[in-house]
Amino acid sequence: MNAIIIDDERLARNELKRLLENFPHIQVIGEAANTDEAGALIEELHPDVIFLDIQMPGKTGFEWLEEWDGYLPEVIFTTAFDEYALKAFEVNALDYVLKPIELSRLSESVQKLEKQLANKTKTHPEQVSVSPQHFLSAQDQIFVKDGEKCWFVRLDKVRLCESMGNYVRLFFDDQKPLVLKSLNALEDRLDPKVFFRANRKHIINLNFIEKIEPWFSGGLQVTLQGKGEKIEISRRQSIRFKELLSL
């Protein structure tokens, strides 16, 4: 397993590296002193996990996660502050480890990581490379159950998918049911010619776009037909969006 340590304190990075030497199957392949450096490293190296400090100069760990729309590995927060624990799990962090880090507590995190990665491999063995036959077409019908309500809906009727932690909210007609699935897992099954990942929280049906406007920091904002939802396309994804829809 490959790891990147993101912490503005060099001594803290060195101490965590020393502790991780007790786990030969984990290799620290990079270090970053801030989130700007971290983003470039993650895109280049695609680690399995990042050990992320919260309080850093510039963006905090939470602020960076909210904005980041690139490849995201498992996240283990390492911090001296215990008041952020609830928020950490709201953003789907794998674990939250307090400094000074004890070897026994780190061992628990490593065990969680091993279990999580093993489950991913079993559940999504095709995740590394998804070939077209895995995609559901826009004409395929899916069964959706939310509480006591059930729907059998064609995918071309779904205009928007929104991440809600471990759930995804599907928007079609006047309905907004929740399904127990991550947005990443859903993205793996959807046809990329029809469904586009606008940002970390949203996938949009390209056929429902009604209006496109320039937005902040080089991004775009699209308005969807139906209920008029306005969805921001991040700056990074805007480049892909323009390439996808250009002649």
From TrEMBL:
GO terms for molecular function: DNA binding; phosphorelay response regulator activity. PROSITE patterns: HTH_LYTTR, RESPONSE_REGULATORY. This is Chemotaxis response regulator protein-glutamate methylesterase. Gene3D superfamilies: 3.40.50.2300, LytTr DNA-binding domain. SMART domains: LytTR, REC. InterPro entries: CheY-like_superfamily, LytR-like, LytTR_DNA-bd_dom, Sig_transdc_resp-reg_receiver.
